[in-house]
Specification:
EC number: 3.5.4.26, 1.1.1.193
Structural class: alpha/beta
Strand content: 25-35%
Function: Converts 2,5-diamino-6-(ribosylamino)-4(3h)-pyrimidinone 5'-phosphate into 5-amino-6-(ribosylamino)-2,4(1h,3h)-pyrimidinedione 5'-phosphate.
Shape: elongated
Order of helices and strands: HEEHEHEHEHHEEHEHEEEEHEHEEEE
Family: In the C-terminal section; belongs to the HTP reductase family.
CATH class of the largest domain: Alpha Beta
Number of domains: 2
GO molecular function: 5-amino-6-(5-phosphoribosylamino)uracil reductase activity; diaminohydroxyphosphoribosylaminopyrimidine deaminase activity; metal ion binding
Bound molecules: ligand AOF, zinc ion
CATH topology of the largest domain: Dihydrofolate Reductase, subunit A
InterPro entries: CMP_dCMP_dom, Cytidine_deaminase-like, DHFR-like_dom_sf, Eubact_RibD, RibDG_C, Riboflavin_Biosynth_HTPR
Length: about 350
C-alpha cells in the first residue's frame, strides 16, 4: 500500500498545531477507488480544541454528489477514531453511520476513554481496520499527547542559549542577551505551541521574565515558577496577573488573582511531585526556559524529552556554564546569527 494518503493526512494534521492542545493533532483523507487508482474525495483536520474532529471535517468536505461513494471509500486517519462523547460525538459512530468502506490509521489512541474501543466499534460494525501505518511519524507528530498518557507527565522541552564558549549567562552583567533577534522570535512561537513555560527561582528573580507571547500571534502558555521557600517578590512580572502562574513551593496552597501557589511535600522528590500535579491539571507540555540549576536537575533525573540549544557567535570569556548537551541529535540549522541544535532523549541517554 502506498503511504501517499497517510502522509497527506499527517500534513493536514499539522495545520492544527498550536490550536488543539490538549487534544492531539489529527488529519484525515478519504479516498475512493481501487489501490493504485485511488482519488481523494474528502479531507479534514482537527482545527481547534473543542471543535469538530478530523473525521467529521473530512466527511463534511465530501461533495454531496460523491457521498454515495463512501461505502467504497478508504478513510486514512492519523489516530484511532474516538469512541466516546467528549466535546464532540464519537467519530467511530459517524464513520459507521456513513458506511465507510475501510479505515487505516497510524496509531491507537492512548486516551483511556478511547484506547482500542474506537477500532472495536468499527470492527463490530463490519468495517475493516488497519493500524500502525507510518506509526513513528504519527507518534512524533503527537509526542506530547503520547508522552502525557503513556508516562503520565507532560512532555518536557529544555531550551537555552549559550555563547560560543559555552556560557548561558554572564557573571557581571547576568542578563546579557546571548541569542539574536530571530532566535528570540522563534522562542515566542515555541511558547504558543506548548501548554506551559517553566523557570527556576534564580531565573525568575534575576531575569524577571514575563514569559508571555509578544513577538508573534498566538496563545499564552501557563507560567510555572519554582519558589520552594516563597522568597520571590510579588512585584515580579510573573505575578502581574496578566495570565495564570503556578508557583510550586513547600509552604502553602493558595490562589491569589491569577497566581496559584501549590504546596509540595518535603519528603518526596520535588520535580516528580510537580510533574504529577501538572499531569492532574492536564498540562501536556512544558517548555523549560532556565536556569541551569533547574535544567541540570531535570537532566539528572532523566525527566526531559527534547533539548533546543542556540549557540551564538558571542564570546563571554566567563560566566555560568551551560548544561552539557546529550541525547540524539535530530537537527542542526542556522537561525539568523545563531546555530540551533535539537536533541531528543532516546532510551539510554
Ligand atoms: C478523533 N479525531 O480529530 C481527535 C481525536 O473532547 P473531545 O470530544 O474533543 O475529545 C477529545 C479526545 O478525542 C482526545 O483526548 C483524543 O483522545 C481524541 N481526539 N479523536 O477521533 C480527532 N482530535
Ligand atoms: Zn473523534
Amino acid at each position: 500500500m502506498s503511504d501517499r494518503f497517510m502522509l497527506r493526512a499527517l500534513e493536514l494534521a499539522t495545520l492544527g498545531r498550536g490550536h488543539v492542545s490538549p487534544n492531539p493533532m489529527v488529519g484525515c483523507v478519504i479516498t475512493h477507488g481501487a489501490e493504485g487508482g485511488e482519488r481523494i474525495i474528502g479531507e479534514g483536520w482537527h482545527q481547534r480544541y473543542g471543535e469538530a474532529h478530523a473525521e467529521r471535517n473530512a466527511i463534511l468536505s465530501v461533495r454531496p454528489e460523491e457521498a454515495h461513494l463512501l461505502p467504497e471509500s478508504t478513510v486514512y486517519v492519523t489516530l484511532e477514531p474516538c469512541s466516546h462523547y467528549g466535546k464532540q460525538p464519537p467519530c467511530a459512530d459517524l464513520l459507521i453511520d456513513r458506511c465507510v468502506g475501510r479505515v487505516v490509521c497510524c496509531n491507537d489512541d492512548p486516551n483511556p476513554l478511547v484506547a482500542g474501543q474506537g477500532f472495536q466499534k468499527l470492527r463490530t460494525a463490519g468495517i475493516a481496520v488497519e493500524t500502525g501505518v507510518l506509526r513513528e511519524q504519527g507518534r512524533e507528530l503527537n509526542a506530547r499527547f503520547f508522552t502525557f498518557f503513556e508516562q503520565q507527565r507532560p512532555y518536557i522541552l529544555l531550551k537555552w542559549a549559550e555563547s560560543a564558549d559555552g556560557y548561558i549567562a554572564g557573571i557581571e552583567v547576568r542578563t546579557v542577551k546571548i541569542s539574536g533577534d530571530l532566535s528570540h522570535r522563534l522562542v515566542h512561537r515555541w511558547r504558543t505551541e506548548e501548554d506551559a513555560i517553566m523557570v527556576g527561582t534564580n531565573t525568575a528573580r534575576l531575569d524577571n521574565p514575563r514569559l508571555n507571547v509578544r513577538l508573534v500571534p498566538g496563545r499564552n502558555p501557563t507560567r510555572i515558577v519554582i519558589d520552594k521557600q516563597l522568597k520571590l517578590a510579588g512585584s515580579l512580572n510573573l505575578f502581574d496577573n496578566s495570565q495564570p502562574t503556578l508557583g510550586y513551593n513547600y509552604l502553602k496552597t493558595e490562589t491569589l488573582g491569577q497566581t496559584t501557589y501549590i504546596q509540595l511535600q518535603p519528603d518526596k522528590p520535588f520535580l516528580n511531585q510537580l510533574l504529577d500535579d501538572l499531569y492532574g491539571r492536564r498540562i501536556q507540555s512544558v517548555l523549560v526556559e532556565g536556569g541551569t540549576t533547574l535544567i541540570n536537575s531535570l537532566l539528572e533525573a532523566g525527566l526531559w524529552d527534547e533539548m533546543r540549544v542556540f549557540r551564538s557567535p558571542m564570546v563571554l570569556d566567563e560566566g555560568v556554564k551551560a548544561p552539557v548537551v546529550r541525547g540524539r541529535l535530530v537537527s542542526r540549522e542556522q537561525v539568523g546569527v545563531d546555530e540551533l541544535t535539537v536533541y531528543k532523549n532516546s532510551p539510554g541517554n
